[in-house]
Amino acid sequence: MLAFVAIFSLLLAVAPVEARMGVLKNDGQARSVEVSMCDTQHPDDALRSIHSELSAQTKLRKVKPRAPQAFTVKTYFHFVVTTDSVALYPPERRNMLATGQLQALNTAYAPAGITFSTPVPPTYTVNTTWATNSDDVAMKTALRAGTYSSLNIYFQSNLSAPGAAYDPSSFLLGYCQMPTSATSTSCLSSLGHNTTDSGCTSTSYAPTSYVSDGCNVLAATMPGGAMQDFNQGKTAVHEVGHWFGLLHTFEGNSCASTDKGDFVDDTPQEMTATDGCPAGKDSCPGSKGLDPIGNYMDYSNDACYTNFSPLQQDRIVDLYTLMRLGH
Questions:
Q1: CA–CA distance, 198 with 293 (Å, rounded to integer)
Q2: Are 115 and 73 in contact (CB under 8 A)?
Q3: Which helix (H) or strand (E) holds 117?
Q4: Do the Cβ atoms of 36 and 73 come closer than 8 Å?
Q5: Helix, strand, or coil here: 115?
Q6: Which of 259, 244, 241 is nearest to 295 (CA)?
Q7: Average pLDDT for residues 222-247, to the nearest whole number?
Q8: Tens digit of pLDDT for each residue in 188-216?
């Protein structure tokens, strides 16, 4: 593989996954399972540098968040299930899950001016190796569609962390590949809040260079899915935030004034990820504001999630323009 795959390998080298106990309910039968939240890895130095520069530009402008620019993201859904899970995903159920998931994504990202459009129906593959995430590259080589600006989400029936042995009592909610290369520094410096021309130079990337790009999401988290407390489609909303380049609101796990956290000024500093939906949570009492438990980039349950902050919405547009649009 080319440079992108090498960078993706580096991104998969760090960041432990936070695990909790959850309940999976299929066909009226509930069972306790271990649930790992998100395996998206920490940003590389290049992405952190871009975040830092964009944050500095926001401070210099001293303006309110801009009116959203409209972007339509071509989106491809892929159902990948084990042989044991075929009965749980008949055609009518897959259609219902996909429709609900697309609606959840469009509702969450509408304030940023982002619309997700599915040009073709979801693919459907029965492959136990792929469904348990035991050969991610082979799966994505076979199934990925579109360009680097296209979103591919693989809804796997038995998602496990990359490289982990499959355990039927343990599931990973999801992870995504963050964007890894900006077009140019001149493109970065030209981004502004009141322009429809980003100044970015489009460069076509060979499909083999980004074969691993996309999001892996546990199918049971789709709206109406089997994962209790995480079945409103907001795992995909969270993970797609990473695909655009957003970081966790608790990035850095620090209350230090020198810690940049997620590099977004209107998300309060947060030292610990949220579990559930604890009103009044304040892991950094010396910093302004309570923890952003309703923010899609925390680890709250689905019922708690309500928003991206205005400056996160700006950042989504800036990062998509810089790092994906036109590629």
A1: 32
A2: yes
A3: strand 114-117
A4: no
A5: strand
A6: 241
A7: 98
A8: 655 543 334 444 555 667 888 889 999 99
**Residues tagged active-site:** 239
Tokens, residue 22? 């959850």
- 164 falls in which pLDDT band (50, 70, 90)? confident
10, two tokens = 């580096």
pLDDT at 16 exceeding the cut of 60: no
The torsion angle over the Cα atoms of residues 86, 17, 30 and 100, rounded to 10 degrees, is -60
Residue 21 carries which side chain, given as an amino acid letter? Answer: M
Contact criterion met (CB below 8 Å) for 230 and 35: yes
Q: Say what the pLDDT of residue 58 is.
A: 78
Instruction: Tell me the Cα Rg of the chain.
Output: 19
Distance, CA of 103 to CA of 77 (rounded, Å): 13
Q: Is 57 exposed, middle or buried (0-12, 13-18, 19+ CB in 10 A)?
A: middle
Report the predicted TM-score, pTM, of the whole model to 2 decimal places.
0.90
Residue the block writes with tokens 């697309």: 102
CB 181: neighbour CB atoms within 10 A?
Answer: 20
Q: Which of 53, 54, 74, 75 is nearest to 65 (CA)?
A: 54
- Yes or no: say if 132 and 158 are a contact pair by the CB < 8 Å rule: yes
